[in-house]
Amino acid sequence: MGGSASLISGATPEQQSEINAELERLKGEGVSEEDIEKQLKEKYAELLNSTSNSGAKCVVVIGATGSQGGGVVKALSGKDGWTVRAITRNLESEKAKALAEMPGVTVVSADMDDQEQLTEAFKDAYGVFMVTNFWEHFSAAKEAEQCKNVAAAAKAAGISHVVWSTLEHTPSFGAGDSIPDIDNGGQPYKVPHFDGKGLGDKAFKEAEVPTTFLLTSFYWDNLIHFGMGPKKGEDGTYAITFPQGEDTLLPGIAVQDIGTCAAGVFEDPSLIGQTVGIVGEKLTCVQMAEKLTAALGTEVRFNSVQADVYRSFGFPGADDLGNMFQWQAENNAEFCVRRDLELSKKLNAGLLDFDGFLASHGSKIPME
């Protein structure tokens, strides 16, 4: 940029006049050329991205500072033909500021609980990536309501493609009387953090918004961040503990790959209206323990417990996760079929299997 008066070739005469005036003001204040460039880039970031990427498709990313949304931003940032409008509730956070430094990315403030803010944030965009965070508020009803807000805003803004990171409504997929009900906000659910998302699917269908329903898998990152990593027993041996049988398959994925797969969905309009299940690898917990042993250099075993025992562990969400694992085990074949490894590889050529995940992130797994 170098202090040039022709900062943005595609700016209107009025915009260029404003930029030139700002440029002269900063020069008059003795600001260095380097700092002038930085300040102008920050002030006119959205205009810079819109004019330098004319004809590009803009994808609005909800949850852009999170793992899934951040992965979408990273995958599309600087990619020919695409720009990103990252949504956050706090523009002053360090994560938001880091996003704003990425090529082709602008950051705007909006809240999923405010339909008007969303409609404004979606203006003139091609696509929207949506993910919700049940663990922030523990409310299935809130997730479903946020889906209504996003669907209505997407309809009003004329969005061409929504990619919604959803999960199954478990009672519609085999969760029966063997799985106890959980009261969540005065309503009975089987697996609240699944069911609220699954109920939210209806909003997009009723609004007739072009949507791809993206089913994810067990996050291998839970071994790092969610306390599901190996624990040392009384005999000194480490074990991972899940309410799964030794032959039960647990489809898993690295969180970083979800965003890349979602970006791949945006590039394939034929997936609009379809449910796409993504997975990095389908392993039994015995196989996971063997791979953990090889990667970490410490023996790790699989400790199989009953779902009732897992639900009794008492940590926040233990009943929800206990039900989830029980439902997945009781409906294992169908659950696995809905997650397509070959399609996942097509969407994300760099997709990690569990060995690849451990090679990249195994050192971060706490050994407690």
Describe the structure.
By secondary structure, this protein is α/β, with parallel strands linked by helices. The chain is built from 17 helices and 15 strands. Among the domains are: 1-52, no CATH class; 217-254 and 280-337 and 349-368, UDP-galactose 4-epimerase, domain 1. It has helices at 13-28, 33-43, 45-52, 67-76, 94-100, 115-121, 134-137, 140-157, 192-206, 222-225, 255-266, 285-296, 307-311, 318-330, 332-337, 341-347, 354-361; strands spanning 57-61, 82-88, 105-109, 127-130, 161-166, 182-184, 187-189, 211-215, 218-219, 231-232, 238-242, 249-253, 275-277, 281-284, 300-304. Strands 3-2-1-4-5-8-13 form a seven-stranded parallel beta sheet, with helices on both faces. A three-stranded mixed beta sheet has the order 9-12-14. Strands 10-11-15 form a three-stranded mixed beta sheet, with helices on one face. The relative contact order is 0.11.
